[in-house]
Amino acid sequence: MFLSVSVMIYAVGLFIAAASASFLMLAIFRVARFRRRPVTITQPLPAVTVLKPICGAEPRLYECLHSFCDLDYEPLQIIFGVGDPSDPAIAIVNRLIAEFPDRDLKLVIDSTIHGTNLKVGNLINMYPFARHDVIVVSDSDTEVARDCFAGLMAPLADPKTGAVTCLYKGAPAPGTPSALGALFVNDWFLASAVVDAGMRGVEYCFGPVTAVRRDALEAMGGFGMLAYHLADDFTMGRMIAAAGYKVELADYVPDIMVVETWSSLFSHELRWARTVRTVKPGEHFMSGIMEPLPLLMLLLLPFPHFGGWAALGLVMSLRIVLHYLVRHRFAITTPARPWLVPLREFICFGVWLASYRSTHVSWRERDFVIAPGGRLEPCDAMGSAVSSGVS
Question: Is the distance from CB of 243 to CB of 162 less than 8 angstroms?
């Protein structure tokens, strides 16, 4: 009896190890093939308005916003939006407006709330000032290269393309929590997104940089359709695709600033995991197999004579290979830290387990429940969702 149970445990561990190793080999293959293609411009590029929602003077905010003001692209309008007249980011925006007098820069200060997602409310407040028919929505923690917009805009020459979005990589601030946060962005999210895009294309968008045609945005119902969704970028891509437009993935991969403490690291990643669990439940469940180190140690370490340790070593070796390959392929300049990979895998697995405890999330010091469909509902004093009554 004991032997049969042991064999069963080992068989389950071996199956999980094989599934994880297969995924990692596919990720290594896809990442190795990811290359930035030369941009061929066959017609004039469109005039662009960039919408930059801002909340607070985040680390490196000036450098991130400066990279957009310094873009080698014309005509270009950049609108910065804040909701609080006392926001310290206003001083940074005014500094940039003074430094770039020839740029079409505008600051919109509007505290009007349009839904539970305050970032989307900020976009709604900025949108009436947009003068051009291609709108770029970009998070405030994103830093870009001067020449990135030509490649981003080229696919929009096809009138059937409604949006072009970018993957992103993490640039960590000093400290272990920030390094672990960036490691998740680069080795887990980015690698998985490359695999996903290579298998079936994209029908969703990412927050750091997305260009959308005005007609596609209005066909999906405008930013107001996103006002009660936490995953607003993801939902916008789905709605644009549902409106009959294509969503394309650009080759350019910008940096996002990753600044974490231990508490914020777990809070941010748990919010992300519970959001993904709501909008992509099947893929979220399968992600547990893609970060199985704690489970494999439990299932395989007791059976070294069966080759359990070899299977465990294979999975971790492939993960380390992917760690170095991602850094090379996406020009990540911070030093490699392979010794953090096992710790990072333990954290991923723990966050994955915790994501099933509830649908509660904390965002900008407010508590919410992620309702079916990814809707963001505020919590009452007892922690229950308070329905907005808006669909």
Answer: yes
State the CATH number of the domain containing residue 70.
3.90.550.10
219 within 8 A of 244, measured Cβ to Cβ: yes
Least Cα distance to 153 among 93, 78, 212, 230 occurs for 212
Confidence of residue 41 (pLDDT cuts 50, 70, 90): low
Asked if the structure places residue 164 within a domain, the reply is: yes
Q: Is residue 169 part of a domain?
A: yes
Residues with Cβ < 8 Å from 104, sequence gap 6 or more? 75, 76, 77, 78, 131
Number of domains present in the structure of the chain: 2
Beta bridge partners of 164: 211, 248
B/e letters for 98-135, b = 16+ CB within 10 Å, e = fewer, are: eeeeebbbbbbebeeebbbbbbbbbbbbbbeebebebb
| 100-109: pLDDT as tens digits | 999 999 999 9
> How much of the chain is in helix, strand and coil states, percent to nearest 5?
50, 15, 30
Residue 235 has what pLDDT? 92
For residue 219, the cross-strand partners are: none
Strand 246-249, strand 161-165: pairing: parallel
